[in-house]
Each structure stands twice: as C-alpha cells, then as structure tokens.
Design brief:
The protein is of the alpha+beta class. The chain contains 10 helices and 8 strands.
C-alpha cells in the first residue's frame, strides 16, 4: 500500500466504526454496513475482518451481524476521564428537564458533526423524537449543530460552509443563505432555534458549552412540540439554556460534578 492509499483506508475504517456504533445494540450485516458507508461489499467485508482481528469489531456467527468490538470499550474507558462529561452534565440535564418539562440533550462536537451523548426525558406527555443518544448530525443542522457553528471563529464558519452542501441531505431550508441567517440570529440571542426544520412540528433550542480554550465543544438543547415554543416561552427557555450552559461550562473547567439545584 502506497502512502496515498493509507489515509483512504483509515477514512473507510473510521466510517465503518461509526456505522457499527450507529447500529448498536442490534448490530448490522455486511450488506447493511456497505449501504450505510457507500463502500463496496467486498471492501467492507475485508475491512471488518481486519478490524475483528484487532478486536475493534465483533461478529455473531449465528446471525452474521457485526457490532463494535471489545477493544473499543477498553480504548474508550481510557479516554473517558478526558472526554466524557456526562456524569458532570447529568444534573444540568435533569434540572432543565424538570424546570421546562421538555426533553433535554447533551451533544458533543466531533469534527464537522455533533453527536448526542446524553438525554433526559421531560414530564410533558408529548415529545419530539428527532434526537436520541448516538445520533450524528452535521454542524448547522438542528439546534446543537447550529449553536456550535455560530460560536466558531468566522473563518472556520466560512471554510465549513464553502466545502459542505447541507441541501443534499437536508433540503433547501439548509441552503447556505438560510443557515447564515440563522447563525446571525443565534449570535444575537446567544441561543439557537430549530423551528421544525427536520421534522414538522418538532422544535428545538440550544446553547453552547465551552471548553477551557473558549471553544464551543458541546451543546445543551431542549426539544418538544411546536405548541410549547411560543414567542414568550422561547425567550424564557433561551435564558434557562444560557444559564445552565454557563453553569456547565464553569463545572467542566473545574472538572467536578454540578450539584443539583
């Protein structure tokens, strides 16, 4: 394998690992993983076999379905002390859910995407089911991705919008001009609003959580049905989100759990 091929192999293997993670807990067949990654089935089988040899993938020989391997658990446990903030954030999610009645979520930025890593159900009986733990969405899509993108440096935002076409998967409401307009509003208020752009009637709002370099590394969000996001209440929810996001930012910089309020 020459030097030019090596990065491509790594990208393909990474895409497979992400597809495996998205297929948990049931796993996926080789064909399903090929479809999810856009790779040829023989290529997927060859990569999966190599990943399994290294403990990064596992196969149920009765069903033929693949899942993430035990080595990923070991690697993840070592990285958890540095990257896992769920335990610290859990009280914030609970407080937001209890105060608002809406479902609350914590998402983390991973490159050009956000990944939902924690959730807390609200008490209101009608819920939005767009977000769930493990879902990956591009920056600029949904409230978490929008608020993180809005708080990046202007040149990073421009670079991202230059190389990513969100309309291919998310439609014209995610055209560059429309996203830019929402970014402007997000910077003005400090929090983002997703007015049913992914699923009609399912609304969400988000606030950025910053790391010790003042980079927007995570986002808190609340989601619910449209009737729960009237103009007056949006302002109130936005203020709550910003307060709790600031609370979590402070706790993360000190690296200790947030006390329940």
């Amino acid at each position: 394998m020459d030097d030019q091929q090596k990065p491509q192999v790594i990208r393909r293997a990474t895409a497979l690992l992400r597809a495996l993670a998205a297929a948990e807990p049931t796993g996926a067949t080789t064909s399903e993983l090929a479809s999810a990654t856009g790779l040829a089935r023989p290529t997927v089988h060859r990569l999966l076999t190599t990943l399994a040899d290294e403990g990064l993938a596992d196969r149920d020989h009765r069903s033929g379905r693949w899942s993430i391997g035990p080595e990923l658990y070991l690697l993840g446990s070592l990285a958890a002390s540095r990257y896992d903030i769920v335990d610290i954030a859990r009280p914030v999610l609970r407080d937001l859910a209890r105060t608002t009645g809406e479902s609350t979520f914590l998402s983390v930025r991973r490159g050009d995407e956000t990944v939902c890593v924690a959730a807390e159900e609200g008490s209101f009986p009608l819920r939005s089911h767009v977000l769930h733990i493990g879902i990956r969405l591009p920056l600029g899509v949904a409230s978490a991705g929008l608020v993180i993108l809005a708080h990046l440096a202007p040149h990073d935002v421009a670079d991202y919008l230059d190389r990513v076409d969100l309309t291919r998967e998310w439609g014209e409401r995610h055209a560059r001009d429309a996203v830019t307009e929402r970014l402007v509003r997000t910077r003005e208020t400090g929090y983002s609003l997703n007015p049913g752009l992914l699923v009609e009637g399912s609304w969400g709002m988000g606030a950025a959580v910053f790391d010790d370099r003042d980079e927007p590394a995570w986002a808190l969000s609340v989601t619910g049905v449209e009737s729960r996001f009237g103009v007056d209440r949006r302002s109130h929810l936005g203020e709550l989100l910003l307060l709790e996001a600031h609370r979590l930012t402070r706790a993360l910089r000190q690296r200790h759990p947030v006390g329940d309020t």
